[in-house]
Every structure is written in structure tokens, then in C-alpha cells.
Amino acid sequence: MARFLLRVMYDGMNFRGWQVQCAGRSIQGDLISAFRQLGIPHPGVTGSGRTDAGVHARAHFAHFDYAGKMTPRQLRLGLNTKLADDLLVTGIWRVPDDFHARYQAMARSYVYLLAREKTPLNRLHTGFLPMGNIRLEELRALAQVLLGSHDFSSLSRDNPAVPKHVCEITQLDISEDAGLISFHCSADRFLHNMVRRIVGTLANLAQQKLGPDVLRQILAEEDPRQRLVLTAPAQGLYLTGVTYPHLRLDETTPSEG
């Protein structure tokens, strides 16, 4: 039995999230089904984390154990013949037997795409909030408050199963192109709805011309029931990467062939 790391890309529009659900499609469920169609028993696909319904991914990772003779390339090609067009395996690598996709992740990165105007063409893959003119300079000034290590209880959904709410944000860059505002966020860990609440709250504060001191007060209160905290729509969020120590996952890795 050997352990492998798998990378997937998906359009989350028709999924109810990463984790297997009682009803509806999930990324984990579709992968397990694809393995079974290849004649491989349940491999215990363990994700690097969970994404919510409607959230997309450019690079989500998971590990699984496999005892057969197929190479990583053969596994990738075989799985992709069994998956629908909105889910794609983009890489498989052999990793140490004690590797864990979730617990050994050092950092995760997301991008949130916030459209200034909602259209029939962007409604499924960008977020939109019905607000007036939001200035980029105001968003960036607010974002500076969130860099570093903070208790993000106020900017996450309350979850009693997660007692620790301190996260360290190492990147929160905001840019705009053709009416699309991009929020690039990286941290050692993220709480439930944290990126979406960060985006929604920054936009709300900027819209109301409320400055960094207000955001500092929101953080200090450590209360998820905040009237100024908004959750941006799921369809604008993309998981873009997961960082693992001592793993080099470029496309020339010998085990990929």
C-alpha cells in the first residue's frame, strides 16, 4: 500500500461542497465514485480542507492510499475518464506513507472575484454585492488591519467544534481589472466562511466610508454576530493553492509520469 497526493480543479456551481453529503453531489463523492469505476476499492480520499457549496477550486489537494500497479499518470488519466466536465484531476504524486493532506498543510491561498456589475455571464463565477462606488484605496487600507496574527471570531461563522480562532494572514492583496476586484488571501489556516466574510466586510466598510479603526474594533469584540460583517456570495471564491513543507509538486516530478 502506498500513499499518493492528488490535485483537483473544479467548478463548484453544481456541488454541495467538498465533503460527501447525504444528498447532492460532492467533490469527494465524485472522486470516490471514479475510483470505484476503475475497480479500485474505497481509497479514503482525505481532503486538505472543506469548501462550501458553490465554491470553486483551481488547486485543491487530497491524499489516498493505493496498492495497485497503475502509475500516477495512468491513475490521473483513468480518473478523468470517469469524472464529469466540472471536475478534473490535474496531478497525482507519490508521497511518504505518513503524509496527511490536511494536517501537514502549512498555508492555504484563495482568490475572491468581486464584480462591480452583475451580468448573465458572470453571475455563476464571481460575487456581487449591491453597493455603490467602492474605492480600491479604501479596501487596501482596511486590508492592512487584517495582516498578521489575529483572533478572527468576528469574521467567521461560529463553529463550536473549532475552539481556536487565531489565524495568521500573510497576504491580502487587492487589485482591479475591467470591473473585477480580486482579493488574494493567504493564511496558515482559515475558519468557516472567513474569506467570504473578510471580502463582504471590507466592501461594506468601504461603502459606508468607515475606516480601519472600525475594523479593529470588530476584531477586538471577537463576536461573529456583527451588524457590519457581511458574507460575500460563495460563487466568487476560489481555492488556489495549498502549501506543504518539503514537497515539490511541479509538473516535472518523476512520479507524475
Name some characteristics of this structure:
single chain, 257 residues, alpha+beta, Alpha-Beta Plaits, 10-stranded mixed sheet, 22% helix
How would you describe this protein?
By secondary structure, the chain is of the alpha+beta class. It has 2 domains: 2-104, Alpha-Beta Plaits (2-Layer Sandwich), CATH 3.30.70; 107-240, Pseudouridine synthase I, catalytic domain, C-terminal subdomain (Alpha-Beta Plaits, 2-Layer Sandwich). 22% of the residues lie in helices and 28% in strands. Strands 1, 2, 3, 4, 5, 6, 7, 8, 9 and 10 form a 10-stranded mixed β-sheet that branches. Strand 8 and strand 9 form a beta hairpin. The longest helix is centred in the C-terminal third of the chain and has 14 residues, at 194-207. It is globular, with a radius of gyration of 19 Å. The model is unreliable at 252-257 (pLDDT under 50).
The CATH topology of the largest domain is: Alpha-Beta Plaits
| The named CATH superfamily of the largest domain | Pseudouridine synthase I, catalytic domain, C-terminal subdomain
DSSP strand tally: 10
Discrete helix count: 5
- State the order of secondary-structure elements, H for helix, E for strand: EHEEHEEEHEEEHHE
Shape: globular
In the predicted model, the low-confidence regions spanning at least 5 consecutive residues are 252-257
Through-space gap between termini: 19 Å
Q: Round the Cα radius of gyration to an integer and report it.
A: 19 Å
Q: How many distinct folded domains?
A: 2
CATH architectural type of the largest domain: 2-Layer Sandwich
Structural class: alpha+beta
Helix content: 10-25%
CATH class of the largest domain: Alpha Beta
